[in-house]
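Hey, quick one: can you model this chain's 3D structure?
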Amino acid sequence: MLFFRTIFIVFLQLLRSSSFVLSSLPQNNSSPNPYLTSTTLFLQNYQKMAQNFKVFMYQPNTNTNITQFSFKTEQESLFYSSLQNSSYLTQHPEQAHLFFLPFSSDTSTRSLARFISRIRNDFPYWNRSLGADHFYLSCDGISHVNDRNIVELKKNAIQIACFPTRHRSFIPHKDITLPPITNPHAPVRLSNEEFCVVEYQNDDVLWLGEALRLGCVPVVVTEEAVNDMPFMEVLRWREMAVFVKSGVNIETDTWRERKGNMRRLGVVGSKHLRWNRPAQPFDAFNTIMYQLWLRRHTIRYESVQSS
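Sure thing. Here's the predicted structure for all 307 residues.
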């Protein structure tokens, strides 16, 4: 308990200008929490990430202005600007844990292949892992082409996509998703204000974070397994939301017994889904960085031979 109090004091000092999450974090390890680890371990790891994590951003192709990138979604733009203004970036690639590949949403596959080729030839970092310690931002995914640079990018590098992905380019064990940006007027269907029904296959699911914030247990209606939830390596989604097929009745004794705890955990978890300008500790941007930090130990993939 003394150790936890010490960790908590460190974070109070770190966040003395903000009460963003601390007011709702569980106060001891015996309390239920929304994390896949104990609260103490989560705070320890987050602190290490905030203090040590470094990312090197490559310069884009010479005919591109890095400040004039265009993205199709607001969360892509917000992640990119937050990263540019963060302390995670380093000008010394030898200090970096991961490497960011910046390119616009409208970049052609031919231009992207040239970009990767230049990085492969000008720097030693791509070849040592074949891109496995690199990440890029793309909600649309990358088109399939028979080019070694694009194949290795899609197969090895971490793609930051947008939730929900709904396309086959997302690889669950490798890629991660940006939570959507919502406003306080979520058009979700309430069932006696305790359960919020959201259809995974339509835009209802974009309001999932807002439902959690309001203390309403999301009921995600889906006919298939959902493997692209934001922060799947951080949050225990099945302790905060219900995943059912259409026609399933959730008004059972089991869910009535669990809903109180699920609502409490959901409110805490929702803090990590919230975007801020500028970014705040524990918010969507910093939790994305935390998930990247967890993946900094990369696997070295075998080379893809061109045909």
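One thing worth noting: The CA atoms of residues 113 and 233 lie 30 Å apart.
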